């Protein structure tokens, strides 16, 4: 798989070809991956797919770190998936909704494979006297468990820690190709919580055409 420097260079070249907001290519989806412990706070963002003939192989999380000085963290604010072809040519990235808080963390990548499964660590509702954050961390598998990528280093996770949900996996000969996130937009009146739920979409690896209807 490509080095990080090569990926960034390819991304700069590919950026001119990224879809504009509101354009949604249709892909042949084989399965929709869901979080077993997702919450219904906030609104679903736009559905975004990798361009035709590409699938997600790199990922990067946006995260607001825990701080003893802050009483209303949001933890996980976005997941960015970078899409490549079978020949490892970068076609762009997809993100759905990006929260305004936090910083983008280190990029993580599969080695000679695509992302195929996901699960999340979610903090259940904490009540009126504690801080809600919803999704705290995510793990994605490459090639059905060949590698497990953790988006955020555990040392920066919110205290207390939530629970990991069940794995949701693509069917055989499919890989992740799309994303849609539910995001709780920060407001002055209520407790902020960042990303609360997520859908990832699987597409067949032998896909030859998009759906046009």
Shape: globular
Q: Given this structure, which CATH class is correct?
A: Mainly Beta
Looking at the overall shape, the CATH architecture is Aligned Prism
The CATH homologous superfamily name equals Vitelline membrane outer layer protein I (VOMI)
Percent of sequence in beta strands: 35-45%
Task: Tell me the radius of gyration.
Answer: 17 Å
Structural class by secondary-structure content: mainly beta
CATH topology: Vitelline Membrane Outer Layer Protein I, subunit A
How many independent structural domains? Answer: 1
Measured between the Cα atoms of the first and last residue, the distance is 35 Å
Q: What oligomeric state do these chains adopt?
A: single chain
**SSE topology string:** HEEEEEEEEEEEEEEE
How many helices?
A: 1
Low-pLDDT segments, ≥5 res:
11-23, 209-213
Largest sheet: 5 strands, antiparallel
For the residues shown, what is the average pLDDT? 80
Protein name: Vitelline membrane outer layer 1-like protein
GO cellular component, one term: extracellular space
Keywords: Signal
Pfam family, one: VOMI
């Amino acid at each position: 798989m490509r080095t990080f420097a090569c990926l960034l260079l390819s991304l700069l070249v590919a950026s001119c070809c990224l879809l504009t907001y509101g354009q949604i290519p249709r892909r042949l989806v084989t399965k929709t991956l869901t979080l077993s412990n997702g919450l219904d706070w906030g609104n679903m963002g736009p559905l975004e797919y990798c361009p035709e003939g590409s699938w997600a192989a790199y990922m990067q999380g946006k995260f607001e770190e825990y701080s003893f000085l802050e009483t209303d963290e949001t933890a996980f604010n976005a997941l960015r998936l970078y899409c490549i072809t079978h020949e490892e040519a970068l076609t762009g990235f997809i993100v759905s909704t990006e929260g305004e808080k936090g910083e983008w963390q280190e990029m993580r990548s599969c080695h000679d494979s695509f992302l195929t499964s996901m699960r999340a660590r979610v903090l259940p509702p904490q009540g009126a006297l504690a801080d809600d954050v919803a999704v705290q961390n995510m793990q994605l598998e490459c090639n059905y468990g060949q590698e497990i990528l953790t988006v955020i280093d555990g040392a920066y996770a919110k205290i207390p820690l939530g629970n990991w949900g069940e794995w949701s996996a693509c069917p055989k000969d499919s890989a992740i190709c799309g994303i849609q996130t539910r995001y709780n937009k920060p407001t002055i009146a209520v407790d902020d919580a960042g990303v609360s739920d997520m859908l990832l979409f699987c597409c067949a690896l032998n896909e030859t055409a998009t759906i046009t209807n």
